[in-house]
Specification:
Helix content: 25-40%
CATH superfamily: Vaccinia Virus protein VP39
Distance between the termini: 56 Å
Structural class: alpha/beta
CATH architecture: 3-Layer(aba) Sandwich
Radius of gyration: 17 Å
Bound molecules: S-adenosylmethionine
Strand content: 15-25%
Oligomer: single chain
CATH topology: Rossmann fold
Largest sheet: 8 strands, mixed
Number of domains: 1
Order of helices and strands: HHEHEHEEHEHEEE
Number of strands: 8
């Protein structure tokens, strides 16, 4: 049966096609590289892609559209990309929305990094770079004209300061225009977690707090937990999203 990736809204034909090609490559390389569970991997791969589609729409409506704003340019870092989730799916969906995203997929394991380069060559794939390193241990490229930054993390736990502190190593100098908004989006279970509990364990500063990380200074705009509405079709397999927002301040550390 043909895989379906739509969750609550139809996807553009190009989107469905490239996600189908991505799923096929996940399955083709799974045995050698161990990208998704090997039990019922066809259904698992489809379910994970759908989960990322539903999660993207939830983030976009609650936070993403406002973060990206009318300039529609975004610098994205997906930390611990593994087989490309959520980065590949989110970049396809950002493209569908007309957002110009410059993305880096950060993955220290070489075989997985190879796979990420490989799927980047699929017809219709979104453009991105792959950084074969742990976050905060290697440089990428300066943040130049983008007005918003997005971090995504799925199945990788890093504290707020480890994520924001890594920016100074990755990008060298702060962007020329302070005031850049930053969303950190972490995939979470839909039950058994609370926004307050996550904020405490990930050391997410409260709204209004000024904080430094890696010689750059930020102001926190708070954090929240987005969970799928019980009635949505992806509720059973959906993901919770813990979203924290920061703004880069003008003064250096
Ligand atoms: C459990 S996998 C999750 C992969 C993918 N995000 C997903 O949900 O399918 C976590 C990945 O993070 C990578 N990783 C571990 N520590 C990391 C770090 N400090 N920075 C970036 N990636 C890291 C691992 O190599 C691994 O591929």
């Amino acid at each position: 049966m043909k895989a379906r990736f739509d969750v609550g809204r139809p996807l553009a034909a190009d989107t469905t096609q490239v996600l189908g090609a991505y799923r096929a490559e996940l399955l083709r390389w799974n045995r050698q590289i161990n990208l998704v569970s090997r039990r019922d991997s066809e259904a698992v791969a489809e379910g994970l892609i759908r989960q990322c589609v539903g999660a993207f729409d939830r983030w976009w409506e609650a936070s993403g559209a406002e973060l990206v704003g009318p300039t529609a340019t975004l610098r994205m870092f997906d930390l611990g990309s593994g087989g490309g989730l959520p980065a590949f799916v989110w970049l396809v969906l950002l493209k569908e929305r007309g957002v110009k995203a410059r993305a880096t997929l950060v993955e220290p394991r070489e075989k997985r990094a190879w796979f990420l380069e490989h799927i980047g060559r699929l017809p219709g794939a979104p453009g991105y770079d792959v950084l074969t390193a742990r976050w905060g241990e290697a440089a990428v490229a300066a943040i130049t004209d983008e007005t918003a930054i997005l971090f995504t993390l799925k199945a990788l736990r890093l504290s707020e300061s480890a994520i924001l502190g890594g920016l100074a190593v990755a990008a060298g100098a702060p962007p020329p225009s302070p005031g850049v908004g930053i969303d950190i989006v972490r995939f979470q279970p839909t039950t058994g977690v609370t926004a307050a509990g996550l904020a405490a364990s990930l050391e997410t500063p409260p709204a209004g707090a000024r904080h430094g990380a890696g010689f750059w200074n930020f102001e926190s705009r708070g954090s929240r937990l987005l969970v799928p509405a019980a009635a949505t079709p992806d509720a059973a397999r959906g993901a919770g999203l813990f979203v924290s927002r920061h703004v880069l301040l003008r003064e250096p550390g």
